[in-house]
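Blinded run. Sample ID left blank on purpose so nobody reads anything into the name before looking at the predicted structure. Input follows.
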Amino acid sequence: MTQVTGRPLLNDRVRTKSTAFSRAEREALGLRGLVPYNVADLETQKMRVLENMRRKEHDIERYIFLTALQERNQTLFYRTVIDHIEEIMPLIYTPTVGQACKEFAHIFRKPQGFYITPDDRGEINNMLDNWPEKDVRVIVITDGQRILGLGDLGANGMGIPIGKLALYIACAGIQPHQCLPIMLDVGTSNAELRNDPLYLGYPHERIQGDAYTGLVEEFVNAVQVKFPKALIQFEDFQTPNAYRLLNTYRDEVLCFNDDIQGTAAVALAGVYASTRISGKNFGDLKIMFLGAGSAATGIADLICAALEKEGLSNEDARKRLWFVDVEGLVVESRTDLMPHNLPYAHDHTGSDFVTAIQAIKPDVLIGATGAPGTFTEEVIKTMAELNERPTIFALSNPTTSAECTAAQAYEWSEGRAIFASGSPFAPVTLNGVTHRPAQGNNAYIFPGIGLGAIISEAKVISEEMFLGAASALAAEVTDEDIAEGAIYPRLPMIRDVSAKIAERVADVAQQEGVAGVTAPDGFGHLIRGYMYDPVYST
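Blinded prediction complete.
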């Protein structure tokens, strides 16, 4: 490789050290006079980043600042993210990424990722040659139709694949050059966006039907040709498309849907861990969901599989899982249910949410609605009347869409709730006791899944891998976490957690015969040897 020197080296986001180049390097690489006198190491540069970031008034400004840093100095960006993950993850992903997506076209600075539109039909295979990296291992793709709880944001949804892949890199050490964010820009039904003169997306109504399905098929086939070892993560697709694409490709190519399967695994891990506080047996739990979309039913499907591993029949497992949607309790007599809801439509009288809680008496309540405030004071108090330690998951993102806040859950339950949310909430002190709300973020699961798939060169992602990932995550919850009421590990532990999950996923791939690489003595050393550690080379 030709050595890059001088200003091109300083402007190379992968190779630059900026002010950290030594005096000898400055002499050898044609950098004298191009940087200030003082040699500032990575730690000093990180101090400057944090100082500048913290002086910003709003989180969206911090997001813009960090995005610019990522484009300017990749090593410094990821070193800062990893070392300050609790502070920075909410800025580069939920909740701030929601606002960033809404404003994506207005805060746009520099193209990132890859865009596919209906005009590209028949050309996707050739177009992928334009991507400069040839060893792509993880692709996150969205069509922007259901971004978080914000609805159809069209091409503005590109902020999600970009953010997810930043977490793959920071949380699991996936090599940055092996990551590819893709926007399947098939138009938007959001007229406000189409009429925005700054909107950058395909300015037409969304394509549907065969035209949509054919474009996705062409993309998936092109990936198999250009990047045959790449994992495809489907992200923020509307429920019908999410299930159809997952069911079409899950047994054919290396792929998964994070909203359905990743959310399911992180929720299952939280339910496992919650039993260490409630003292209840996992196999005896009754669980009620508010919301019946892809996230909620994905969670139920994986919990059902976990209950079957406890010895329950499929029928008995499903009878422990109940749903309430905007029309009330999901029951057999209803005629408005979608196919993914039918297995959970039980023989019962329909009723509203609170009445359903009183009748079913669930141990765990899981919200995946995208509708803020739906866990009302009456709901939480009803759960607290039925359970000494009611388990409450308010999983909707961003924070403004959460079914209730941590403070509300603790206050309305008199401090007895076991609480987890999708976006972060600060600790809550009530009657002299401080409760640490756990963040049931998918970042605890999908990076480890990807890492395990890469290391084992898995051919597909199986349900058993997600069950293993959930079990591995729950095992990383410490006694100290439990004592604080938290059912997920602290975020600074996330790289270790991801490595443990990756080992479990790779082991399952090997056991199921779908691994392209085998490791009779275990995958741990391969995983640790692969993981990206952002430091300057000498």
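Unblinding after everyone has recorded impressions. The two ends are 17 Å apart (CA to CA).
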